[in-house]
Amino acid sequence: MPAEGDGDPACPVDAGRHPLHNLWRLRHYLRPHAAEFGWLLLAGLAATGAGIAVPLVAQRVVDGPVARQDPAGLFRLAGLALLLGLVEALLIFIRRWVQSSSSMRIEAAIREDVYAHLQRLPTSFHDRWQSGQLLSRVTSDLSVLRRFLSFGLFFLILNLVTYLAVVTLLIRLHPALGLLVAASAVPLFLISRRFARHYHAASRRMQDQQGDVATLVEETAQGLRTMKAYGRGPELAARFATGARALHDTGVGKGRLLARTSALLDLVPNLTLGVVLVAGAAAAAGGVLTIGELVAFVSLQLMLIWPVQSLGWIIANGQEAATAADRVREVLDTPPAIVDAPHALALRRADVRGRLRFERVSFRYPGTTAPVLREIDLTVEPGETVALVGATGCGKSTLLSLVPRLHEVTGGRITLDGHDLRELRLSALRRLVGVAFEEPTLFSMSVWENLTLGRPEAGEDEVRAALALAQADFAYELPWGLATRVGEQGLSLSGGQRQRLALARAVLGRPALLVLDDPLSALDVHTEALVETALKRVLRTTTALLVVHRPSTIALADRVALLEEGRITAVGRHSELLAAVPAYRAVLSAGPAPAPPGDRGLVRS
Ligand SMILES: Nc1ncnc2c1ncn2[C@@H]1O[C@H](COP(=O)(O)OP(=O)(O)OP(=O)(O)O)[C@@H](O)[C@H]1O
Predict the structure, then answer these.
(1) For residue range 304-331, what is the model confidence (pLDDT) as tens digits?
(2) Which of 131, 428, 488, 502 has the fewest Cβ atoms surrounding its Cβ within 10 A?
(3) Where is the ABC transporter domain (predicted)?
(4) Torsions phi, psi of 403, nearest 5?
(5) pTM above 0.80, yes or no
(6) Ligand 1 neighbours (beta carbon < 6 A)
């Protein structure tokens, strides 16, 4: 089970709450547009008022000029009806015009907040959420919300007011028939309630399925080469077809539910209209109702058909918006686990000596029971380079990720110059730490932007020095030099090129701490030797922790720490460990020979 508050997509945060609870919690996005919304509503109500007035004018036409055969009065009242019609059309136009721009702004505001929150959430959150589920939340769910906040909600209010106003007028015109029309609200309410319940569940299912399909498409796009190389196209296509079919079935189910409900919603006012026509004609024949009143009554009642018919669509839209709000709040309600302490210290580069100390550090991934790291004690002195060596899966990358606080220690503490990392301001800490991961990620932006990601203020000289150090001068040879946009995830570059750019990014600005996860793994022997030579110069001026898989890279380190199943079992010079620790020899024996022994105590095995 995932850890509580980790925002696992499988456990909706608000299970058990009222279906509209989360939609209600988004009301503050409407607040900046309250005045606009008020005017819109006013325009809508005025248009409805103008519409309602037309049958009342018709009543006067029939009972007045038509009955008295008075053409002058007829033209006056017809002119009034025409004017009311024009006013109604104008108000509807104004309302629609304004409505679209405010709804787009509301959607953009929510989207910005969700994106900003995603940035603050810990890596453990992103480890556990499928990217397609996040994607569908910031795209389709927000569009659904926009539609509801701008149209669904508006028409819900407008139609309700229209219904109440018309029914009141009907009761005044003929109390018994008016009450009959009012009573038809009971079956309408029951039908709507039942529909809302079923539609809510179907909407949630469909929006989740949309996320699943988006995930599948995204994974396929990212892993296209692997998929093709292994000839797995048909299997993936079959998986996709299953997901798409499930989505289709849910969509069809929803459509049919809406169709059934719309038919029932249509039936109720039409049945009532039939009864009214018969009873109204009888009342007119009996002299209880004038012909004009009957015309007005029926015309007014016809005005209820659209609000009732649209009820199905409005409820459907509302339910979709409610589930969209649930899904968006699942992200927004996940607390950013790694945040600044109240009086966090903003250490500056100039004030840092660079003594990094792990004190009885333990770590367990959220949602798992077994710790990956146990009781780690390790000190890296200022300017020292320590290599982490260990079998695959023993926890090396995890240990590195604790330094820039991508994950938070679950036991013990890590200090920099005696300050617990949790007492440092996150932004300051991350500026002090240069990081290059095993899988170098480049974003769809220019080489320059990729390089200066963590240090946007870096100058040309610094960038040039970093590129030279990482043997990445090839970047100047790209079609537009450093302005060249590298493709999605830098795929248009080779693995070695990407790794060198990622290394240049890490060393840019000479960080106080350098954390490199096997930074030379994708380089050819010649480039590796060149990068090593340059890197040695940088390592002299900074404290560094390196994950090393290849014995040749150990030459960069002053000391080596052997990690076995989450524990550090030996620390020392390479030569000492090689001589005294069989497990160390065993880990290295799989790789190529390390550099010859020198004053750093390195030996060639
Ligand atoms: N996000 C995660 N959630 C849960 N467990 C994880 C996560 N990432 C890694 N692990 C587990 O933690 C353990 C250590 O992983 P880690 O990547 O730190 O190992 P490593 O020593 O760097 O391996 P390698 O040398 O292959 O890169 C592994 O058992 C792995 O399955």
Answers:
(1) 888 888 888 888 888 889 989 998 998 8
(2) 488
(3) 356-590
(4) -70, -50
(5) no
(6) 127, 365, 368, 372, 390, 392-398, 438
